[in-house]
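Propose amino acids for all 232 sites.
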């Protein structure tokens, strides 16, 4: 199954920076469950996960696997490449004996026709070779199963793509993570105040208006958040 493309480096996915963040933001919350339901809205949380085997690609601290398992998924595999993230994932999922947590890149994945649902939330667009990743995910799902990904969209993102992201890359992307960690308080504070003042009429802003300050601070829910300028 493997090909030269499958050996693509994982470094372009910023595992070191994601791992730093996940090591500090790993507790479960109602905000996170609400996000998971929206990200996986094509699967009915009441019936769609029940008795299904799952594969979580880029599992982070395991929270997405956790919600799927609480909705009735029977067993599965969660993979990531950062040890700090995986340590939290193992603790979070230890009460589900059928769920394995493994240090493995999606490029190394050599599983065929095993899972009912293969999903990846907020990961594929960060990878150097998303096509190779998607191919391995498609191989891993059973015939008739589902492959579900959530990625950043372009709609309403023109300002970020054309202005804010180039600015982020130039000013912040090479800074040490401890510096970025503290700097992120400033734009998050501005965003939090604007949201509480009623800024933004699209549904996205209405959603994150109810999120806590620390949720916005520690895990930008979309690059449109100003905190994403310094987050990664």
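Proposal:
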């Amino acid at each position: 199954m493997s090909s030269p493309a499958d050996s693509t480096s994982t470094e372009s996915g910023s595992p070191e920076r994601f791992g730093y963040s996940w090591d500090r933001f790993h507790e479960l919350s109602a905000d996170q469950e609400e996000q998971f339901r929206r990200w996986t809205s094509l699967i009915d949380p009441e019936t769609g996960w029940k008795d299904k085997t799952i594969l979580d690609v880029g599992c982070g601290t395991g929270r997405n696997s956790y919600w799927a398992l609480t909705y009735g998924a029977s067993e599965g595999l969660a993979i990531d490449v950062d040890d700090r993230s995986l340590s939290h994932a193992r603790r979070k999922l230890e009460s589900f004996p059928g769920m394995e947590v493994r240090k493995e890149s999606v490029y190394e994945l050599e599983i065929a026709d095993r899972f009912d649902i293969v999903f990846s939330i907020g990961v594929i667009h960060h990878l150097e070779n998303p096509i190779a990743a998607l191919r391995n995910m498609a191989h891993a799902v059973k015939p008739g199963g589902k492959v579900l990904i959530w990625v950043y969209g372009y709609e309403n993102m023109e300002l970020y793509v054309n202005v804010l992201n180039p600015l982020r890359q130039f000013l912040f992307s090479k800074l040490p993570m401890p510096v970025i960690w503290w700097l992120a308080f400033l734009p998050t504070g501005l965003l939090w105040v604007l949201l509480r003042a009623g800024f933004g009429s699209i549904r996205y802003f209405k959603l994150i208006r109810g999120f806590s300050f620390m949720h916005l601070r520690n895990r930008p829910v979309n690059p449109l958040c100003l905190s994403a300028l310094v987050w990664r």
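The radius of gyration is 18 Å. The domain at 4-150 is CATH 3.40.50.150 (Rossmann fold).
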